[in-house]
Amino acid sequence: MKTMKELKKIVFIGLLPFFLGCNDFLEEEALDTFTSLNFPQTVEDAEALVNEAYRLAGAHYASFNYPDVVLYPTEFATTRRQGSGDVRAQLDNYEVNNANSRLASAWNGAYGVIRQANIAIGAAEGIGDDDPDKATYDRLAAEARVIRAYTYYDLLVIFGSVPLIIERLETLEDAERPVSPIAEIYDAIINDLTVAEPLLPHDYEDNSLGRVTRGAARALLGNVHLQRAMDPANVAQGTDLDNAVTWLRRVVDAADGGKAYTLEPEYENLFGLDNVSNNIKFSNEIIFQFWRDINACCRNAYYANS
């Protein structure tokens, strides 16, 4: 009579050929996993990637970290922040160190926006010319380019030299970049905006608020050229002032069907300080906006309407 040990051995030997001949059976087929190789699959997928870039940008610019970094070192400085250990006092006094949490959060938020914009741009630009939705993909890539340029422009003004990453990162090692020359960052920003501008509409058929328009790209191009013309980093180009005038004039030039931007009669209404109204979202003064729901995102009215 066979022992239990011998029976187990017979069963194992009997099953071994089955497993050796059925390797495919043991390999997992990922039916619902999206990667850079199989996503986006539709134009709706591509739009979802760009919408996430908008969401991250809105969260970044409406968070308290970004306004603190931008405004505290200027006229927003306050005497209430006296202690050197207070991160906002460091910003007031230009004594910032690498452990400043507000600065780190603003930095991380900005690169989170850039990372998502890179993903959206790469996905949309991988579409062939024969795709029936090619024009929509191109427009979506243009929107993401402006978001990326807008964010890099802020980083450039605040920090100067920063790492320039304009492609999708596949590994952590890909993110290990040195800072890039300021001139190179300006060139990348201007290239993004110049490529995007003709691909963007002046308005959206569904009246989408916050989506990048051609007027927004033109306004940012004018600002970037004007900033570089001031030459704080000794990188100005001889044509910067002329280009700034050209692009800023084109913002209000309706000859090609552009929007007729006009100033809001009550300036404070733009920030909702007195009477918040949905109508102000459609103000003819607003060229580009990230709208955030005060009840969903923000601790007080200042940050909600920044």
* H/I helix tally: 12
What is the terminal separation in angstroms? Answer: 85 Å
Q: Tell me the overall shape.
A: globular
Order of helices and strands: HHHHHHHHHHHH
Main structural class: mainly alpha
Mean pLDDT: 79
Largest sheet: none
Assembly state here? Answer: single chain
As a percent range, the share of helical residues equals 40-55%
Unreliable runs: 10-20
Count of distinct strands: 0
* Strand residue percentage: under 5%
Give the topology.
Blueprint: H1 4-20, H2 23-26, H3 43-62, H4 65-71, H5 87-92, H6 101-125, H7 134-159, H8 182-196, H9 214-230, H10 240-251, H11 294-297, H12 301-304
Can you describe this structure?
The structure is a single chain. The chain is mainly alpha-helical. Helix content is 51%, strand content 0%. The relative contact order is 0.09.
Can you describe this structure in just a few lines?
It is built from twelve helices and no strands. It has helices spanning 4-20, 23-26, 43-62, 65-71, 87-92, 101-125, 134-159, 182-196, 214-230, 240-251, 294-297, 301-304.
Top keywords for this entry?
306 residues, mainly alpha, 0% strand
